[in-house]
Amino acid sequence: GDGAPLDLFATGPLPRQEEGGRVRFVSVGRISAEKGMIDSLRAFEAMAGEFPQAELVLVGYGPDLDALRAAAEASPFAPRIRLTGRLSPVEIAAELAGAQVYLQHSREAGGWVEGFGVTLTEAGAAGLPLLASATGGLIDQIEEGENGFLFPQGDSAAQAALMRRLAANPALRAEMGKNARRLASRFDAGVMAKALEDVILSVLAARRQAACPT
């Protein structure tokens, strides 16, 4: 099954969620149409004027990187937007640890649908509240109001409204982050492998029992 090795992300302290403190939104993924980084940039622009402490970090590499960089540089909030390019897993873990909210605006494009969101689970393990588009496998990873919120894919206004809600409420961010770390453990690759092994062993035991009833 799918899963993610979460030790790298789940062992640090929970993110600092402080009244009046920085609210850094981070997104990790391939910079291409189906990953919706430009949508997250537009959502950030829609709410950043109300929250001077808000920042946006976009992590990744891909065919739309130049276009995204141009949009970021042209943004009225350019000083608060950072594009990292390609990072190693350790560097990604550090970016997640330094953020307050995780964004994933995946979009169905050209027949492609998001499956299991590995980075969404890693961000949850890092203790970040999760904002994600309601598409593909992401829907199953968000417990609405518990570890994050879903918004309709392609709807940057709805995404911005949820970003406002979390930016304004550090206590909600902290509670959701704790829940996100707890819920992410369901998707740890080791945990999932053990669960699969348990299922296989119970099926084999049942077959043996059926073949040799006492």
Please specify the SSE layout and strand pairing.
Elements: H1 7-10, E1 23-28, H2 37-48, E2 54-59, H3 65-74, E3 81-85, H4 89-97, E4 101-104, H5 118-125, E5 130-133, H6 138-141, E6 148-151, H7 156-167, H8 170-184, H9 189-211
Parallel strand pairs: 1-2, 1-4, 2-3, 4-5, 5-6
Structural features:
214 residues, alpha/beta, six-stranded parallel beta sheet, 9 helices, 6 strands
Describe this structure in words.
The protein is of the alpha/beta class and 214 residues long. The protein has a 6-stranded parallel beta sheet with strand order 3-2-1-4-5-6, with helices on both faces. Helix 2 crosses helix 7. The longest helix has 23 residues. The chain is globular and about 75 Å long. The model has no long low-confidence stretch (mean pLDDT 89).
What is the CA–CA distance across the termini?
Answer: 35 Å
Order of helices and strands: HEHEHEHEHEHEHHH
The largest beta-sheet arranges its strands as: 3-2-1-4-5-6
* Backbone shape: globular
Number of beta strands = 6
Average pLDDT, to the nearest integer? 89
| Number of helices, counting only DSSP H or I runs of 4 residues or more | 9
Short description:
It contains 9 helices and 6 strands.
